[in-house]
Amino acid sequence: MSAATTRSRTPDRLCAEAIDLARSAAEEAAAPGVVGEHSGLVSEGDRVVTHFFECKELGYRGWRWAVTVARASRAKVVTLDEVVLLPGPDALLAPEWVPWSERLRPGDLGPGDLLPTDQDDLRLEPGYTGADEPPPNSAVSGEMAQLAEAEDADVTPGAPAAQPMAPSRGSIAAVAEELGMRRARVLSRYGLHSAADRWEEAFGPKTAMAQAAPATCMTCGFLMPIGGSLGQAFGVCANEFAPADGRVVSLAYGCGGHSEAAVMPKPPQPAPPVIDETRVEPFPLRPARDSGSVPEASDEETAELGHS
Hints:
Elements: H1 3-9, H2 13-16, H3 19-29, E1 35-45, E2 48-55, E3 63-71, E4 78-87, H4 100-103, E5 124-126, H5 143-150, H6 172-178, E6 185-187, H7 189-202, H8 208-211, E7 223-225, E8 234-237, E9 248-250, H9 299-304
Antiparallel strand pairs: 1-2, 2-3, 3-4, 5-6, 7-8, 8-9
């Protein structure tokens, strides 16, 4: 260890004794009554010392006022360097800041919010390249490519919306615009797999609902098929009483609302009434006095009970 290092770690005596100067500077920078006791000092270098004072301000638990003082070489006067509020070892700190793109979660997007996508987003890829030969999975292929080549069409790279002017007729951009392919970017293979994993986790065969279901969505009449490559594994539920109504569900998913799980039997139809029109049964308009279940009492008996 060199002598210079030893001197830098040993606090300067005059700077270490300048506690009153450091306290006055901290009280001037802080609000009245929030500067606490002197909690220590540390040597920052030759004739440079930082004094620490407790902070009593609410919401700043464990923070300290740090006042740095210094002294010039061969000088006996200690001067003030800076005053800052710094967190201590056990200070209450705010969570580490995370960019909004990493904080965003599904469902955070509200009405009027805009969610920009990066130019190199891995979930997207160009809808068409604009090259002479369109990609094999592009709708502009085969006959359209031959027609463009026969007409000596000019190939303009980029999406129609990104062109400085309307694409000329016969170009790949014009053909794509006529076919409705105005999307500059489409889902990449990574984007398809990410969406499939997300849907599989929410409404897939490993969920508790699917484990207790009587059958899968593949045989349900409420399943609406979707197009594209994902249609081989997913569909849309159209049962208003199902938990996944209007959601993309896996074909291996299932719930108690399956269309064929419990078919209700038709209510029994009563037999038509049989009317015998060959006989006549007399039906009195007024019942007889002795036709009831209670025998008729005499006037003497009712008189005893208080009836007139």
